[in-house]
Prior knowledge:
The protein has 299 residues and is of the alpha/beta class.
Amino acid sequence: MIEVVSIKKKFDSMEAVKDVSLHIDKGSIYGLLGSNGAGKTTLLKIIAGIYKQDSGEVLIGGEPIFENVEKKQRTIFLADLLYFFPNATIKQMADFYRSIYTSWNDERFQKLKEAFPIDLNKKIERMSKGMQRQVAFWLTLSAMPDVLILDEPLDGLDAVMRQKVKNLLVQDVAERGMTILISSHNLREVEDLCDHVGILHDGTLMIEKDLDDLKSDVHKVQLAFKNTPPPAFFEALDILYKEERGSVFLYIVRGKKDLLVSHIENYKPIIFDLLPLTLEEIFIYEMRDVGYAIENIIV
Length: 299
Ligand SMILES: Nc1ncnc2c1ncn2[C@@H]1O[C@H](COP(=O)(O)OP(=O)(O)OP(=O)(O)O)[C@@H](O)[C@H]1O
């Protein structure tokens, strides 16, 4: 659905995006993470067809997005800084969206009133930051885009509204195959939303993972043995991290769960627990493995 091939972008001599390639399937939710200044917004704007890359290609549904009116009518970029016309009400902004987005759906707009309980005739400028963000989602979801590109989308929303918006996004992905690219600093925030995650650092995509693979391939185990097992026990494990707490070992290991369990059970541990890992933990160990401390890369 979205094909990004060797994208480079400089601002004067500053290389904001350095040869980034990625692929996003239709109907998936891709989380782009990274620290301040990593190049996330620049890359999102290139993918949305707002900035032109210096080299490389961005294809949406097989066609270049830049200056492609038809594709842009089906692609919405929701920026971190929202923009509405001065003095406009929700109703007036909806009229504008209806005039430019061919897939605008009035029925959906009316239905979403239930999710966003705000007076249609209220001036958006006079609303709180969180309410303005709600309006942005209301309008965006009513325009029924095929591709939705979100830059720090949940900033300013309260916890209940965050969950509501996440549910609406997932619903559009599940029901009509919308594709979402979402940028955030916060791994925890996107953990339950994304099926793929990429980490951008200093203009380079450091690591890119399918979350189902990640979660099924990395495990935290807590172990204790009566007698320390022979070296063959440890050699057979792909250990990303280890810690000793008295006679209890804590290991983060990569590998298939069934094979791991049967290997460990062969050595008759007196304690053996398989513990869940958060996405943040997985990335900490994976990044360490490629020589980076994730604490320096995302917050
Ligand atoms: N219009 C611009 N002109 C000049 N430099 C820019 C411009 N936009 C971005 N940059 C530079 O490109 C680099 C990447 O910026 P970008 O906004 O893409 O990062 P980001 O990952 O979105 O950061 P943040 O998380 O802080 O929003 C930064 O060094 C920034 O100063």
